[in-house]
């Protein structure tokens, strides 16, 4: 059994002190239920280097090529308020071995861009790289 270190990088021009995230990792069983490797992290502040904190998964016995869904929800802080960046979280399908290898040249790199208009004349772009 293995415990994986789950983290990701958020590529954005927004100062990271204004970004909050919530993340989870799961697979879907044959009945359509979520089987969690990482339950919701709850809202966490993005680090200054635009990386999430490192979150330890549960002890997993699946083979390294088993695909899991990384779900990431971003929030933009304005004053004391937080606003969801998207109406639904971003997702990427990642094999477990993706969390063992720090050199991402081996294969899939989750990369999703989104534009969000926060105020009348302010648009913010977010991209996350797993």
Can you walk me through this structure?
- With 130 residues, the chain is mainly beta.
- The protein has no helices and eleven strands.
- It has strands at residues 5-6, 9-12, 19-28, 34-38, 44-45, 55-56, 67-78, 81-84, 90-95, 111-119, 122-129.
- The strands form three sheets. Strands 3, 4, 5, 7, 8 and 9 form a six-stranded antiparallel β-sheet that branches. A three-stranded antiparallel β-sheet has the order 2-11-10, with no helix packed on it.
- The radius of gyration is 15 Å and the shape is globular.
- Mean pLDDT is 80; it is low at 104-130.
Give the key terms.
130 residues; mainly beta; 6-stranded antiparallel sheet; 3-stranded antiparallel sheet; disordered C terminus
The geometry reads as globular
> Rg from C-alpha positions?
15 Å
Structural category is: mainly beta
**Number of H- or I-type helical stretches:** 0
Order of helices and strands: EEEEEEEEEEE
Query: Can you give the helix content as a percent range?
Result: under 10%
* Strand content range: over 45%
What is the mean predicted local confidence, pLDDT? 80
In whole angstroms, the N-to-C terminal distance is: 22 Å
Which regions contain 5 or more consecutive residues with pLDDT less than 50?
104-130
Summarize the main sheet.
6 strands, antiparallel
Task: Please give a quick description of this structure.
The chain has strands at 5-6, 9-12, 19-28, 34-38, 44-45, 55-56, 67-78, 81-84, 90-95, 111-119, 122-129.
């Amino acid at each position: 059994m293995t415990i994986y270190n789950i983290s990701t990088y958020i590529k954005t021009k927004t100062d990271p002190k204004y970004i909050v995230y919530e993340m989870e990792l799961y697979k879907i069983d044959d009945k359509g239920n979520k089987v969690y490797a990482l339950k919701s992290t709850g809202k966490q502040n993005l680090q200054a280097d635009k990386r999430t904190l490192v979150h330890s998964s549960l002890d997993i016995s699946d083979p390294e090529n088993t695909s899991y869904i990384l779900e990431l929800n971003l929030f933009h802080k304005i004053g004391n308020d937080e606003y969801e960046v998207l109406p639904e979280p971003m997702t990427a399908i990642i094999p477990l071995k993706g969390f063992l290898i720090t050199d991402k040249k081996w294969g899939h790199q989750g990369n999703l861009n989104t534009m969000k208009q926060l105020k009348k004349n302010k648009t913010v772009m977010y991209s996350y790289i797993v």
